[in-house]
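TA notes, week 10

Several of you asked for a full example with nothing omitted. So below is the full record: structure tokens for the whole chain, then the designed sequence directly under it. When grading your own attempts, check the secondary structure regions first.
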């Protein structure tokens, strides 16, 4: 989708541009307009206007809902797992940097 959007907006085929720098690519990507495929997806995902949402197609609602619920599908730690992870991290820091002298 990124490649298609850059091709649509700038007429640049990314795979045919082996000398493009990362900074140049980032500049192009940051300037993607809403009329491109990527711009349309970003617009759908970020829309909060109730009036506009009423006119969304079922596909647009699906795209928006999948984006908004993506975090809910990720595994969550229990309180015990989180406490154990913090303790493990603290031990790693102690081993790496030692205990400060009082």
């Amino acid at each position: 989708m990124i490649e298609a959007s850059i091709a649509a907006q700038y007429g640049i085929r990314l795979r045919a541009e082996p000398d493009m720098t990362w900074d140049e690519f980032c500049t192009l990507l940051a300037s993607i307009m809403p009329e491109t495929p990527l711009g349309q997806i970003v617009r759908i995902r970020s829309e909060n206007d109730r009036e506009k949402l009423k006119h969304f197609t079922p596909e647009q609602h699906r795209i928006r809902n999948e984006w908004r619920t993506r975090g809910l599908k990720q595994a969550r730690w229990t309180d015990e797992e989180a406490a154990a992870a913090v303790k493990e991290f603290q031990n790693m820091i102690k081993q790496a940097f030692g205990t400060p002298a009082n």
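The two ends are 56 Å apart (CA to CA). Use that as a sanity check on your answer.
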